[in-house]
Amino acid sequence: MSTTVSQHRFMIIDKVLDTVETVRDLGVIVDHRLKFDAHISSVVHKAMVRARLILRCFISRNCMLQLKAHMTYVRPILEYCSPVWSPHHKYLINKIE
User: Fold this and answer.
1) What three-state secondary structure class fits 20?
2) What is the full DSSP assignment across 63-88?
3) CA angle 65, 58, 60 (to 5 degrees)
4) Positive or negative CA dihedral for 66, 72, 78, 82?
5) Taking all residues of the chain, what is their mean pLDDT, rounded to a whole number?
6) Per-residue pLDDT tens for 18-60?
7) Do 32 and 67 touch, CB atoms closer than 8 A?
8) pLDDT at 3 over 60
9) CA angle, 76 as apex, 72 and 78 as ends, to 5°?
């Protein structure tokens, strides 16, 4: 007989704990199935916003300056804790790239 997490009630000192779909721990979002799809979507969105901001705010179109700005402001978002949430599905890899 298989049971899901939502069928269990967890308590601490007579207080029932709420059931959540996702949780953020040390900046990494994990869902109840231990998948990182929500985290990857969040990271990709933040990186795209920063990349667009760099293109709008920098007056210079010098390639080296753009590359340094990308490596400073966008790449750390994409690489933070990547060994933990490293994707193995092709659609997630394509999303990050």
Assistant:
1) coil
2) HHHHHHHHHHHTHHHHHTTHHHH---
3) 60
4) positive
5) 87
6) 888 899 999 899 998 888 999 999 999 999 999 999 989 888 8
7) no
8) no
9) 130
Radius of gyration (C-alpha) of the chain in whole angstroms:
19
Position of tokens 């231990």? 34
**How many CB atoms are located within 10 Å of the residue 39 CB?**
22
- Which residues 6+ apart lie within 8 Å of 6 measured at CB? 19
- Structure tokens, 84: 């933990």
Confidence class for position 6, pLDDT limits 50, 70, 90? low
Q: Which of 82, 86, 70 is nearest to 35 (CA)?
A: 86
